[in-house]
Predict the structure.
Amino acid sequence: MATTKLSPLSPVRPDDRRRAPAASVVLKVQDSTAAEAYEQYLRLPELSRVWKTACCPGWPDEGLVKPALQALEITFRFVSVALSDPRGYASRRELARRLESLTAREVEVVAALCEGDRGAPLAELSASEGVLPRERSASEVWQLPGSAAAVVCHASEASLLPRLAAWDKSETLAAKIKYAIESQMQGCAFSLGLGEPNLAGKPVLEYDRIVQPHELHALKPRVAPEPKTGYRNRENEALFTIHQILESWLCAASQLLTRLNSRIEAKDWEAAANDCWILERIWKLLADIEDLHLLMDPDDFLRLKSQLAIRSAPDGTDASFCFRSRALLHAGNATRYIKKLVPWVIGVEVDPNGGPRVQEAAMRLYHGRRRGEGEDAGKIELLQAFQAVEAAVRRFFFAYRQVVAAVCGTAEASGNRALFAPAEGTDPLSQMFLEPPYFPSLDAAKTFLADYWVQHMAAASVPSGRS
């Protein structure tokens, strides 16, 4: 029977020849004035201080978990804003569904960040010996099954979630959020302390101390009513809150990328892969947050857009509102930087002559009989997570263009340029999802591995000749 072998060399068919891909675009702020206006509108300097104010010096992951929890708390504020909207034409029902789904995914990511965390500041349930403090009206006294000791379950006093649970318009939604917290935090050593059942009787996070809800909710929009008409645009608070949620998650993503790089440098492949999968979920979460713009009233939003002077630059260099966010630009560049870490993960150096050294090493790793064992444990999962993050980043920027087109019109999104202009002539947003693969060596390794198995199966199906 004919035999085949795994080889990085494969004949190139005429129809496989393509034009050399354009170089990757480096995201940068094109208009510093617009970026500054964006930051002042969202009160980002003040919000950044709330993110970065350290309250727990002994907690190494505070800078990562804190902005994620604050994004969750701001989402609770958005629930309140959405359900208290008096406009008869507001999409309250669908927006409530979207916010319920978004909150559940946020809780899922928060739980993933908290798994294995042993340094978070916690309030032990049994610390008060069953005595209900006068100043904590939201606390509950109950007894664990099979135990004679009474415990006090502390709930946050400052968070909006307990208030949403007591409001008839949002009590059902708040109950679903609490059950989502109870479900997702099962794998963690503590619970969040937001009024969830906490059936396991675990310690609860000192939520108010970490998240600082009072300081967080004090950062509301400053835009005054229109001077001539006195009109108060309800979409202003929605736009403001959406982007505060977005920026908070971008802060968490930046901290996660720092931890990811340090774990890769330490060759902790399994932990790095876990961080990479969380990063992928954050990029998907960012796309879900941007989708909330679709539920804004067209007339009110475009009126607000004109008032805030949100528009694309005429030359297309700063074609999208998202590129005014320095945090998004940093996260996009830092995420694509991980492609430079592939040789370190695989354990080879890049061939200075442009040879397929990294590709061959990746093929051996993918095809090895003892893959995933010894020093290679976690490597394949990490490489898979790299490419999953790439797909999530491309989806985010492609989906963002579609959201802009749906909300503002295709002229604002410059939608036709990417279809008819060469790659080097497209705007930065188009280049983000049209640029070459971030990981060409991994892409080529899988291409040749697939070709190997096609040849192998074809050879195996040919009957052997008789002697």
User: Anything to note?
Assistant: The CA atoms of residues 59 and 262 lie 17 Å apart. The chain has two domains: 44-120+157-223, 244-462. The first helix runs from residue 32 to 42.
